[in-house]
Amino acid sequence: MKKYTILLPMLALMGAASLSFVAPPPGGGPEIPADIQTLLSKHGCQACHAMDRKLVGPKWTDVAAKGYNAKRIMALVAKPEPNNWPGYPPMAAQNVPKGELSKIANWLVSMKK
Ligand code: HEC
Fold first, then answer.
1. DSSP string covering the chain, please?
2. pLDDT per residue over 24-61, tens digit each?
3. Ligand 1 within 6 A of CB of 80
């Protein structure tokens, strides 16, 4: 009898632990710096863009791989050119203050290989 009172909570804990391993994507890959993450959340970019997988829009690494300079990225966010991304729905123009947009743009530039 006494065995079960110890075993059950232990099983519950193990279940919780294994579930928490499912949540975060395994492996490395580039990380989004905290200040950039804040801006991306604030402006809702995260709803459609992620670092490691395609959502509604291309993943950040794919955007970075286009090799744009910061000025071009800022122009594209304010006035998207959907022809650059066949197979994706068009992105609506995003209204991000210049100072913040420039931080996001420079981060994307710094990411490219
Ligand atoms: C509702 C979904 C959605 C949101 C929100 C969104 N995007 Fe996009 N984004 C897309 C899609 C879809 C594409 C590809 C098609 C296109 O460019 O129109 C794209 C493309 C891009 C590109 C590549 C442009 C090009 O022509 O190569 C950049 C840069 C970008 N997004 C940045 C941002 C930033 C920064 C934000 C937040 C301010 C943001 N996006 C918010 C869906 C979204």
1. -HHHHHHHHHHHHHHHHHHHHHSSPPS--PPPPHHHHHHHHHTTGGGTB-SSSBSSS--HHHHHHT---HHHHHHHHHS--GGGSTTSPPPPP----HHHHHHHHHHHHHH--
2. 444 456 789 999 999 999 999 999 999 999 999 999 99
3. yes
Length of the chain: 113
- Compute, in angstroms, the gap from residue 9 CA to the centroid of ligand 1: 46
Domains observed in the chain: 32-111 (1.10.760.10)
In terms of C-beta density within 10 A (0-12 exposed, 13-18 middle, 19 or more buried), how is residue 96 classed? buried
The finding on whether 91 has its CB within 6 A of some atom of ligand 1 is yes
